[in-house]
Every structure is written in structure tokens, then in C-alpha cells.
């Protein structure tokens, strides 16, 4: 069977598929596996990094890992779709087939009673973020380089699906420049973190149905017990209410235009709303909506509004 085309240059495609085979890699290991020079590998890794397909390892200094396809590929396509040149989009069915081929074996989420390390936890959270329906809540007591709590890919996936992202940090997290920069990035997307003096636990809750909880030694486990989830939710809600929003939360006017508006138009288009209804929902003129819809149809190579909506869903744009 022919391997699905995912819109990458040949070297980048090979490297990404190779990296999916293990939890994380050092550059020395990749050079040995692929037989490439260090310069060639570095150049291709830079390409994958710009596309959001690789991330820093949270458990091995200097190592890198592949971001889960179900999260990384829709984000890549969304960025290309928003760009000035709307070509180079991989076929929607090929992207969907590649994601399906790289999904973990079927089974209930709760069957993940243990993880192989922090990068395994990150992959698990990425898969949950790619399917979230309502809300992701994160309680973060410390800054961990390479952690999914500071991943733009994870945050983008949650927000692109129209879900809410609520983040509470311990005040010492903001002492890290990378965290402060991430807070500014989140604020422009209406998701500024809140800060309290002390966060008692490191936990990520998804849709109130699943939680990833880290113990004092950094080991993580999955929680789906209703009683435990209710307790974690009460703690998260209390911390959120008591938290102070980070930095300047004034949203720039241009944050509501361009890419953010295009994604909202696509989402409402996929829901079957008319141009008039979409215009009323997001507060712009009908002409603006029609221009966005026409651009979406051209960018997605769709012959109808319905087909544009379907392809947007297939590609993970909404």
C-alpha cells in the first residue's frame, strides 16, 4: 500500500516518520539511523520544527520527539491554509489515513495505568487535546522544559476545536522567561493563565472525564474515577477563582481578524450556518464572510460550501 502523502518534502517526510517510531531521539541516534550528515539532519529538523512536527524532550536533555500526528498535522495544515499562498495542502483523505495509521491500539483511555516517561505522557495528552470537546484545565506548580503544559501545539489544538483552555500556574513559574513568553502568547488568544502563590498538584483535566495526575516523584497516571475527578475539579475551580490573570490581557484588534476569524468562519460553515448567520455570530459584514467562504473554497479546492466544510473537518481545521 502506498504511504499517505502528508505534504512534506521527501527528507522531512522520512525524518518525521522515523521519529514516530520511538519516544525520543538524540541527533547522534538520528544520524546513525538515517546515515545523514549532521548538517543535513539539522536543516531538516529545522524544517520540521517550523512546521510544529517536532518538540523538545521533557525527559532527556537535548533530545527531540515527534509531535503526535493527530495534533501536529491539522495544525500544520491550518497554518498553511491561513498563509498568503494557499497551496501545498496535502489531500484531506491522505492526512486522515496517516493519522489513523499512527493511532495507538484501540482501547479505553483508562487502560493507560502507567507511562514509560514524560514524553509518553506528552504524547497521550496530545491525543486527548486533538479530540477535546469542551474544556482543558491545567494546574502547573513548576516549569518543566519541553513539557506539554507549555506547548503551543497543544494549546492551538484545544482552541482550534472551540474548547476552553483554563490554566493556573504557581507564581514561581513566571520566573522562567519561556513561561512568561508563553503567557503573552496565550493572552492574545483569550486564554491568559492565572497565577496563585501555590499550586498543590500537577494535573491536566480534559472534558471533566479524564485527568493526568503527576505524583511527587514526577510519575503520571490516568484518573477516570468520578469521585476523584470531582475532587480535582473542585480544587481547580477554587484555584482559578483565586488566581490573578497574567500580564496585559487586552486583546489586540488584529487578533480578531485574519486567521482567527477564518477558523471561526470555517467552523460555522461546517455547522451548516448561512453567510448571514455567520456574519451575525462573529460580528462582521456579510461581504466579509462571503470573501472568507470563497477563500476557504479555493484554498481547500472545494466545489461547494458543503465540501469546504467537510474538508475542513477532515484536515482538522475545525
TrEMBL record:
UniProt keyword annotations, A-Z: DNA-binding, Transcription, Transcription regulation
InterPro entries: Sig_transdc_resp-reg_C-effctor, Tscrpt_reg_LuxR_C, WalR-like, WH-like_DNA-bd_sf
Keyword Transcription (UniProt): yes
Boundaries of every HTH luxR-type domain copy: 251-316
Superkingdom in the source lineage: Bacteria
Entry keyword Magnesium: no
PANTHER family in the record: TRANSCRIPTIONAL REGULATORY PROTEIN NARL-RELATED (PTHR43214:SF24), TWO-COMPONENT RESPONSE REGULATOR (PTHR43214)
The protein's name: Response regulator transcription factor
Phylogenetic placement of the source organism: Bacteria, Bacillati, Actinomycetota, Actinomycetes, Pseudonocardiales
Amino acid at each position: 500500500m502506498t504511504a499517505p502523502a502528508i505534504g512534506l518534502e521527501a527528507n522531512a517526510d522520512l525524518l518525521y516518520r522515523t521519529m514516530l517510531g520511538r519516544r525520543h531521539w538524540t541527533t547522534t541516534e538520528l544520524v546513525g539511523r538515517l546515515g545523514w550528515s549532521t548538517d543535513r539532519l539539522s536543516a531538516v529538523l529545522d524544517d520540521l520544527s517550523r512546521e510544529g512536527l517536532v518538540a523538545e524532550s521533557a525527559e532527556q536533555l537535548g533530545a527531540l520527539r515527534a509531535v503526535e500526528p493527530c495534533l501536529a498535522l491539522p495544525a500544520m495544515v491550518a497554518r498553511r491554509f491561513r498563509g498568503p499562498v494557499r497551496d501545498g495542502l496535502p489531500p484531506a483523505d491522505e492526512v486522515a489515513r496517516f493519522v489513523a495509521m499512527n493511532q495507538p491500539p484501540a482501547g479505553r483511555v483508562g487502560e493507560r495505568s502507567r507511562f514509560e516517561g514524560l514524553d509518553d505522557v506528552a504524547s497521550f495528552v496530545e491525543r486527548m487535546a486533538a479530540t477535546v470537546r469542551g474544556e482543558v484545565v491545567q494546574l502547573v506548580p513548576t516549569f518543566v522544559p519541553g513539557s506539554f503544559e507549555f506547548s503551543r501545539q497543544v494549546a492551538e489544538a484545544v482552541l482550534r476545536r472551540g474548547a476552553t483552555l483554563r490554566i493556573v500556574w504557581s507564581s514561581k513559574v513566571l520566573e522562567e522567561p519561556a513561561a512568561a513568553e508563553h503567557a503573552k502568547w496565550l493572552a492574545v488568544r483569550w486564554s491568559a493563565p492565572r497565577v496563585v502563590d501555590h499550586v498543590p498538584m500537577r494535573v491536566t483535566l480534559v472534558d471533566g472525564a479524564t485527568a493526568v495526575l503527576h505524583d511527587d516523584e514526577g510519575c503520571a497516571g490516568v484518573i477516570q474515577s468520578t469521585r476523584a475527578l470531582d475532587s480535582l475539579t473542585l480544587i481547580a475551580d477554587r484555584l482559578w477563582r483565586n488566581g490573578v490573570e497574567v500580564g496585559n490581557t487586552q486583546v489586540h484588534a488584529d487578533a480578531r481578524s485574519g486567521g482567527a476569524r477564518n477558523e471561526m468562519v470555517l467552523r460555522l460553515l461546517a455547522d451548516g450556518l448561512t453567510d448571514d448567520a455567520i456574519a451575525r455570530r462573529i460580528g462582521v459584514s456579510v461581504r466579509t464572510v462571503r470573501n472568507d467562504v470563497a477563500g476557504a473554497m479555493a484554498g481547500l479546492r472545494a466545489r461547494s460550501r458543503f465540501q469546504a466544510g467537510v474538508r475542513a473537518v477532515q484536515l482538522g481545521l475545525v
